[in-house]
Amino acid sequence: xxxxxxxxxxxxxxxxxxxxxxxxxxxxxxxxxxxxxxxxxxxxxxxxxxxxxxxxxxxxxxxxxxxxxxxxxxxxxxxxxxxxxxxxxxxxxxxxxxxxxxxxxxxxxxxxxxxxxxxxxxxxxxxxxxxxxxxxxxxxxxxxxxxxxxxxxxxxxxxxxxxxxxxxxxxxxxxxxxxxxxxxxxxxxxxxxxxxxxxxxxxxxxxxxxxxxxxxxxxxxxxxxxxxxxxxxxxxxxxxxxxxxxxxxxxxxxxxxxxxxxxxxxxxxxxx
Amino acid sequence: xxxxxxxxxxxxxxxxxxxxxxxxxxxxxxxxxxxxxxxxxxxxxxxxxxxxxxxxxxxxxxxxxxxxxxxxxxxxxxxxxxxxxxxxxxxxxxxxxxxxxxxxxxxxxxxxxxxxxxxxxxxxxxxxxxxxxxxxxxxxxxxxxxxxxxxxxxxxxxxxxxxxxxxxxxxxxxxxxxxxxxxxxxxxxxxxxxxxxxxxxxxxxxxxxxxxxxxxxxxxxxxxxxxxxxxxxxxxxxxxxxxxxxxxxxxxxxxxxxxxxxxxxxxxxxxxxxxxxxxxxxxxxxxxxxxxxxxxxxxxxxxxxxxxxxxxxxxxxxxxxxxxxxxxxxxxxxxxxxxxxxxxxxxxxxxxxxxxxxxxxxxxxxxxxxxxxxxxxxxxxxxxxxxxxxxxxxxxxxxxxxxxxxxxxxxxxxxxxxx
Lengths: 272, 419
Description:
By secondary structure, chain A is an alpha/beta fold. Chain A is built from 11 helices and 10 strands. In chain A, α4 (121-131) packs parallel to α7 (171-184).
């Protein structure tokens, strides 16, 4: 473990341009416990402002758990405990001055299973801006809804049926609706927890394309099981195993020239 | 895999065919059994409703006797000026209408004529005078309610004593049967011919309003707190067990609790809808809490995640997403609890609602009775006229129940459609 720590430190100091951008979020020595069980052990990682960062690793390695600490979604799980420091623009998100409701508006989330509200498409997207008071008038709200759906690549498909139920859409459309819902509150970071695991290849391709388009505007962190997907969409990749961060670096480096044996074994399909 | 020693299964041999037939037979038997159960319960329900309807239908009609009263020659002295203002009812109430009624009855119906009229005949005459004061100056023909004896003879022809009297009056066109509006508009009385259900109906209505106003918000809020906010520990486990036990406590014990707490300690008025409602709310609350908790639990966690993920606060998650989705389930639980409360008799007997109340309650603190207690009281009466009134009251109770459930089901469907 000590070796891994040194290595991830080394990766951080290497600063491999051009994918290295200004730091948006950074975690230092983060550990998570569920009751007595330690799910994450001393993870330190930086998330770049204009990057897509992928977390890969076998099932149960803690990548989703770690993702959920980044916008404090773990707060809702009873007896989950987080130690260490996570910063958003240098501000401690677990600190006393951080309001969790505002944090989640700034760090949005897209979940594994598409989970639109059982309301109309319009209401799904308008909900976030409405509860945060981002639109003064109905026209502003209409504009936000249209812009969000356009950015999520869904506008052309649903512009004539905004009042229909969001749950009536296909799986891929539902997931893009969830992305539209997340970007409607104009977040700084979007966390995606295996956003394509419930989708077919065509819908997956659309989501990946969308991630490309959203990159630069939002810092994106994506958890995925699919290594090809990580290679396709991300600039930086972190490999997790058994609750530890094994290796973190430029995606092309991780996939072509991993420095740690365990990463190489996973990427070449020795286990997973 | 395919070892040569393995004999391929012969799906057509006799043993297999028989096995298949037995499986189909078992399925058919089970389906018939289910159908039989449904038919049996439908039969019981139909039997109950038909019996009640047949017995109770006559409770809604009554016999009336025509009496020609010559007010101009009678001894009623009423100044027409007094019949205009607010005091008209008092003035008419003080007038002696019994004497002219008795005189007319004796003259037109025979020596025993007065006893063929109900006690409420005088009230009917007074109402007629109030409605049209001009009849005081002339002879008027009025239909007055018949006594319970004549009423029974009109509905059941072979009464040995009153039967011939009824036949004679019928022939002379002095008696008719009609819809008994008074049954729906008046309260309890000693004479079965003049009892009404309105008092008990209004009592039930007021009691249910108190019950709903207390049990629904408190029950739903408790459920929300327990499901969404309360930490999981020994205390909440104990509360959960207590609530489940409370739902199973016999209702009469709630009556004793109401007696001890609301009447003896808090000194609230006896036999009032307020106390009845409080007692029934105690009884209904655990049912609503349990149903609401189950409904809240069945809201998928992904919806909560979705709302939290865009930065909704806990209370926004609950009120914007969880409660609307849980509402149909909550309403179903509320229907069950309220229906049970509406039909409850025992706890209300304990808090004094079995008293004879001859006037509908004006507000929540006035003495009242409720429909099931009224049914219980009437079924206990010896007079034959109360039999049909009991059945009629049951019909009113069932109609109340169906109206209440109808509203709840309408609301439930409405909310289900919206989501």
